[in-house]
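dumping the sequnces here before i forget
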Amino acid sequence: MEGFNWSDILGNEEKVGQIREMIKSRQFPNAVIFSGLAGIGKKMIAKVAAMSLLCESDNKPCGDCPSCRAFMAASHPDYYYMEPDRSKANPMIKIDQVRALQAEVSLMPVMSDLRMVIIDDAELMNGAAQNCLLKTIEEPSGLSKFILTTSNRSRLLMTLRSRCMIINFERLSEADIARGLDLRNIDNAAEIAVISNGSLGQAIKLAENDGLQIRSDTLDFLESLPKLSIEDIFSKGQSLSTQPKENFREWTNNLQKFLRDLLIVNVDIEKHYYYNRDLRKRLSKLHGQFRDSAVFDMLHETAEIQRRLNSNANLELLIESFFIRLKKSIQK
Ligand SMILES: [Zn+2]
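..and the predicted 3d for all of it:
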């Protein structure tokens, strides 16, 4: 079964090696924070670590002992997983959830000699919930181990952070992301990997939302902008406004990245500073068409439209006036 072994984890080899070593030598701390960008595999690493810590065999996780079997069947009595309700507009981990956890960990483990708790996106606990968790972690029984994952460590209380060992995970390499996409039978893996910012989760989202298509449409637009007539602008605005607002938001994210790339495209710097380095030739050509001041103006307008997209204003009108302002930026 996939996702239940160390070999299923992509990237971060060194950190994963340290974690395995701590488990093997029984040095795994009582409370750990797995910190790093969203979509790089923190939760999967936490799960394999939890399964290993509960496993009864030497080669952890063996996938075969009663504990491992129960874990894989999602019925391990000593494993507790907590996450925010992501169906909500503002997902939160509520203090009631933490209190339920507190009651649970006060009991003796049933199957293993310890209890494993994973709290995913732990920064989505408010202060009261975090304080309640801190008390739970500090309970002296010592029979529970906690793994908190977070993509925004600064939102965890200092008191909580200082009580935990912190392990930072890095962005994934393009090769690892491409491999992760291949494993999921996703097309254009190598291309998507370039623009996924080191996050497999982001790459999967891009693939699901036609991210490459949106990106290509954005660059086509930017290239044609100097020649666009007002009629062209209205018809482009109309066609974009028939799509979901989220697609247009992604479109503006792409525009922002292209504009940032334009500012550095002719500067001799490390390639990883570019968002779209696979398109560097086209960008280099485009660079001659816009003055830097025009690019800055367009960046400003893009930030402004992203802010306005949060309102309930008519999307078509928003897009059209945005395009007209972009056009003005390059005519100044
Ligand atoms: Zn086992």
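Residues 55-57, 61-62, 64-65, 67-68 surround zinc ion (CB under 6 Å).
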